[in-house]
Amino acid sequence: MKLINKKICMGKDIGIHGNMFGGILMAWIDEAAAAFATEYCHTPNMVTLRVGELLFKKPIKTGNHIRLYGDVAHLGSTSLTLNIEVRKYNLYSSDEIVVCTTSITFVRIDDDGNPTPIGESIRKKHTSLQAAAVLG
Known about the structure:
Number of domains: 1
Mean pLDDT: 95
Number of strands: 6
Number of helices: 2
Largest sheet: 6 strands, antiparallel
CATH class: Alpha Beta
Structural class: alpha+beta
CATH topology: Thiol Ester Dehydrase, Chain A
Shape: globular
């Protein structure tokens, strides 16, 4: 998976149980995934279609360093689905612990908000990257 963003959990991000509020983490995931999707597809015209099940596996506390990772799970004719992992990063040991996982799908849209095809050059790049991953 590719590192797509880094964050630090701040006091303002904490919910009533002393852990990071899930809605804040969901926003971080959507923002990082959207940036990744738009760069991957070379267009700003990508919108969130669907967020899969969010599995909150470990708590996040104030001061925790968070890393968001993503990779392309599927490239459709108008959509892109990413697998996302959120990891807590230990500054002292460089260890990472997965704290949340999900998938998220984006759709490329035109100026009227209708789905529009992802460019052929992106499809070729994606096929080449998949082939390299299988060989590598």
